[in-house]
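Schema walkthrough. Field components (list of strings):
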Amino acid sequence: MMNKSHDYLSGPPVNTMKPGFMLVRHRQPTRCSLFLALVLWSISAPIQAALDIEIFGGGASRIPIAIIPFVGEEKLKHGITAVVAADLQRSGLFRLVDSSGPSIRDPRQIAYPDWKSRGANALVIGSAVMLPDGQVEVGFYLMDVAKQVQLTEYTMIVPADRLRAAAHQIADIIYEKLTGDVGVFSTRIAYVVKQSNKYALQVADADGFNAQSIIEYSEPIISPAWSPDGTQIAYVSFENKKPIVYVQTLATRARKAVANFKGSNSAPAWSPDGKRLAVVLSLQGGSQIFLVNADGSGLQRLSQSSGIDTEPNFSPDGQTIIFTSDRGGSPQIYRMAVTGSASGAAERLTFEGSYNVSPHHSRDGRGFTFIHRNGANFNVAVQDLATRQVQLLTDSRFDESPSPAPNDRMILYATEIKGRGILAVVSSDGKTRQEISIQAGDIREPAWGPLPKQIRR
Amino acid sequence: MKRIIGILLVGLLSACASQTIQPTAESGSAGSAGIANTSLDPNLNPILKDPNNILSKRSVYFDYDSFMVKNEYRSTVQAHAQYLRDNAAAKVLLQGNADERGSREYNLALGQKRADSVRSAMTLSGAKDSQIEAVSLGEEKPRATGHDEASWAENRRTDIRYQGE
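Field assembly_structure (string):
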């Protein structure tokens, strides 16, 4: 199945390397608590990246849902239902049912037999009304078609330029109601764009829109990592002839070098409490894992081998680290305890193949995603920590940097099409894949940010 | 209510944030700055750039998956070690590189191995460890941008840069 959403193809060509960082002042919130969340996440860019999205595959047990275009949304600058539909479809858990016909705003107007015959299990109706003060009141109902009952309803008032954020919130509510799982459509992603000889670390909505540059340099940037509270990003910059680890605060743009020791400094990973970072230094020979406080103090060596130990990643409980090491002759993934002293003891976790790298724990701590070399290809795989079972999720040529969604249902990764780097999302069962390409530039090094605080539970 | 105020405060702070892309505050860096953190020096010894002098040779190439300095580069490495021995104030930055295949961070570590092996050869030939900083650029600064074996071979390399260059 292939779907091209025309919504994404509209708009002028966009130079994504422009700073475009514009903050919008909002009126005092008047209504629901959801609106507060929108205020916090209201850093909006004046331009939208033009995306080209393709969806492949699809699981058999997807929930058939019809989303009738909201009453009044055609009068707004941006539609809502197209964003909601794209979000739900991207998750791999939904199948969109034909929703053509008149828009309605009242559940009593629903002709249930019609929706049943179209194969919809769930139905969404709603409205978007421009208020005299310029804000928009958005409301919707989620209905169970078979039982002919209302599952939920919600109304929110949002500034006119925050309609995409409102749509993501609606998708989250629908997703949570129908799957029982937390939705991640209101989260953000970070990644690096290379355009001609410039590198930009950008942050965007989870669907690739509203991209803003956090920092731009003429030298490479790699390995962005979100702090657990989503307020800071650690990354590696080559602006000074060698790799140095920085931590930058998103709201103020202030940054600090947290690892700038003699030799190379790279591969930052946050501890779950956000107080420390694991980093890789060549300070004492080789490439070895160290711990450092988030302010750059308190350096302490963690791993002890004669070769390469890199790409550390904390378990959600902070007790262990998984990492890539060549101590056995080929790069494989190992696990070691985080203790007060350096140790050479580690348990090897991967045994299939001669190249397994870039491990990231799932957020539930039960497994990890990584890159497995499969013949000439480099693919996204997942491994269960208890059963050791490995599943390959992709079959493309060059996949890199897998990063799990905060609900573990999707994995964001970098891949390549015709020599150009793009981002893609694969569902955790490997059945749905979607490419997200922000059109200008070569994109790599994605990192999926945490849930916004207001909806973390 | 406290929470509402907190959120509004964040909004206000964001609204005041700088529109520039450069960081607004650059804190002092942690740890000891290495040789990389220095600026250009116009008084650099011209012998280092003389095309007739072996010291103008600045690249050491490596075989696939190998980190050994090959015999054909021994004389170059030794000449630089000798220069460092004779010029105690001179310092070099060794930048290791890797080809583009695989993980960026793992490739950074592979480039580090190539820089470290040139450093070992130089210190064996009499250069002091304090005169050398070995770092890696991984696959991030390829000299050859093709996606074939010839390009990859060109990028499996350590470059020698003198302080001030």
